[in-house]
Every structure is written in C-alpha cells, then in structure tokens.
Amino acid sequence: MSKGCVVVGMSGGVDSSVTALLLKQQGYEVIGLFMKNWEDDDDSEYCSSRQDLIDAVSVADTIGIPIEAVNFAKEYKDRVFSYFLREYEAGRTPNPDILCNSEIKFKAFLDHALRLGADKIATGHYAGVREQDGLFQLLKAVDASKDQSYFLHRLNQLQLSKAMFPLNNIPKSKVREIAHQHGLSNAAKKDSTGICFIGERPFREFLNRYLPTKPGEMVTPEGKVMGRHMGLSFYTYGQRQGLGIGGGKDGSGEPWFVAGKDMAHNRLIVVQGHDHPLLLNPELDALDMHWVSGSAPDLTRAYAAKTRYRQQDATCRIALSGEHGVHFTFDEAQWAVTPGQSVVIYEGDICLGGGIIDTSTKNPVHTR
Q1: Contact partners, residue 82, CB within 8 Å, separation at least 6
Q2: Are residues 118 and 84 located together in one domain of the fold?
Q3: What is the span of the domain harbouring residue 124?
C-alpha cells in the first residue's frame, strides 16, 4: 500500500535522482517533475536544459516512475530574474538561488504538484525538516560540507509542511554510491554550480546582455585613482579577480579587493590587503527579514549567523530595527559583508530565518 503521493523535482542531477529512488524504495507513489525555467538562450553551451531533461527521463525510466516536464519560464522571469537585475543595477549583489527556492521550487512547483494530487513534494536539497510542537523547523544537513539550509531560509510553514528532503542524513559520497549501485545514468554527472536555472557561464558577459556598461574610476578610499571599472553592477564586495590592478608600488605586492561602491559618483572603492579594516565589519543591518516559524525569536539570546554561503557560523546578537529589519552585532568582525546577499540565522542546527543585507557599519566612501 502506498504511503502517499510525492512529486519530486527532478533536475537531471544525481541528488534529485537519488531522492526519487529512495522515496520509491520507501513505498511512496513517486512522480517526477522536470522544471524548465529559462528560455532566452536555451541552445547555448551554457544552458543544458535539453540534456538535463534527457537525463531526468532516463533516470525516471530506470526507477520506474512517471515524469512530466513543466515550463515556469514566465514565473522565473517575473518573480526571480527581474529582481536579480534590479539588484545588480542598484549596485547590490543578490542571491537568486534563495528567491528561486521560495518563489519557484516551493511555490510555482508546489502549486503544480498539489494540482497533480501530491501529498508532499521532495527535492534533492541537503537540509532537513522536522515538526515540533506544531511548528515545522528547517534543519541543517548532517553533511555540513553540503548543507543547503542557507538557500532555503525563506520557506514558510506551509511550504515546509509539504516538503521532504530525503538526503538530509546522507553524505554526498554515499549519494553517488547509491546512484552507481542502481545503474542511474547520471551517477557521475558533475554538480551544477551556476545561477539557478541559468547554468554556468561567463557571468560578466551574461550580465552585460541585460545591463548597460557604465565605466568609471577605480579609487582608494582616499580618492587616489587606481584604474577604471566597466560598471559598478559587474563587481561585488571582496572581489579580487578581474580588477586589472596588481600589487602596490611600495613592493608589498598585496592584492587589491573591492571594498565599496560610490553610486553617486560611479566610483569603485578598492583597498589593498585581504584584512584591510574596511573589509571587516562587526555589525550589519538587514531588511526584509523572514522567520521560518512566522515570528521573531527570543532577542535576549546569542545566535549564530552566516553572511554568505559556506561561511562558518559566527556568534551574534540581534535586535529588531524598524518593522522588518534586524541589526546584527558579531563577536568577531565579518569579512566583506555584501549588500544584497543574505544573512541567515541559526540556533544550533535549526535555521531560524534571515534577511537581505542592507548596510554594514563601515562605509568606505570618503572620496572627493
């Protein structure tokens, strides 16, 4: 007897394929759903949705489950990509994968799955979900090196109540082993690391198709001109590569990093040395906060937070600021805090939520 119907988001990758396999083995009625969400240059070498669909169909056939392809390209462009471009144009660095999860994979996809009669949806994310005292908690994955709870922190209670993450307790090496053991054709397929649904491509070249270049000066905080930039949208805080300026003339040879943007004067602020004071921030403000539980946690306690993916948890204190903002104070200064990125809060292995980084306490724009 079936344990219920689960619709699995199958990307053609090994993680979602093993997710579908495990659920089938556990006795669920499994339906695969392949999402096509990008059409602008689907025939290019960087966008591999055709091959991904072939891989997903092949795996579904091997497992013995039906699979359907659905097109959410309009939803993706309206809800995710338009925001992505607005943020870059404003000089910030957005994280489209986070919005993609909350707006596409767990909204458009969830709505479609429920129309198909699904009891739950499942994805190949490395994260966990647990119900406790009537609330659903988002958990870190057991394999800390693959944990993706950071990208899922904007999910709400309804979305989590319908979500399953079967890979939560399984290391990535074991996932590939399972795929090999069951003859899945994509067992050795390389993991995708590109922009959500857009693929891996030369990023500056891609962005230049949608945003105009507006060259300007690359300057130190004191106003010394070090070079030229091609447009503030094309750089992010902490960036080292692609600046075109080498080590210092004093022979120190230390690399240069982006430390800020003077949007009013179209100037890119650069500093020398990884540990320059303007790259270290003990505090930050975040807007558009989202709490997984639906309400803010106890503000008297210390928590941990990440200001970027793959960062170690950093102890912090939080205080509400305005209607939807939070002020973060860290025990240790954080490196290259980047407006537009997400700061995500944890209590142990529980992801409490997060928000969009608005400002840090250090503003390197002192140029004249």
Answers
A1: none
A2: yes
A3: 5-203
Q: What is the pTM of this model?
A: 0.90
Q: Please count the structural domains in the chain.
A: 3
Is there a contact between 350 and 362 (Cβ–Cβ < 8 Å)?
Answer: no
Residue 196 is among the residues annotated as catalytic for this protein: yes
Annotation says 5 is catalytic: no
For residue 44, give both structure tokens.
Answer: 């290019």
CATH of the domain at 74: 3.40.50.620
Q: Which of 5, 47, 100, 351 is catalytic?
A: 100
Dihedral sign from CA coordinates of 359, 210, 95, 156: positive
State pLDDT tens for residues 190-230. Answer: 887 555 545 555 567 777 888 888 999 999 999 999 999 99
Mapping DSSP to helix (H, G, I), strand (E, B) and coil, where does residue 188 land? Answer: coil
Catalytic annotation, pick one of 5, 47, 196, 351: 196
Q: Are residues 96 and 22 in the same domain?
A: yes
Strands 325-335 and 280-291: what pairing? antiparallel
Residues 325 and 231 occupy one common structural domain: no
In a 3-state reduction of DSSP, which class is residue 151?
A: helix
Q: Residue 266: give its domain's CATH number.
A: 2.30.30.280
Shared-domain flag, residues 188 and 219: no
Q: How far apart are CA 8 and CA 163, in angstroms?
A: 10
Read off the pLDDT of residues 112-127 as tens digits, 9 standing for 90 and up.
999 999 999 999 999 9
Q: Which H or E run contains 341?
A: none
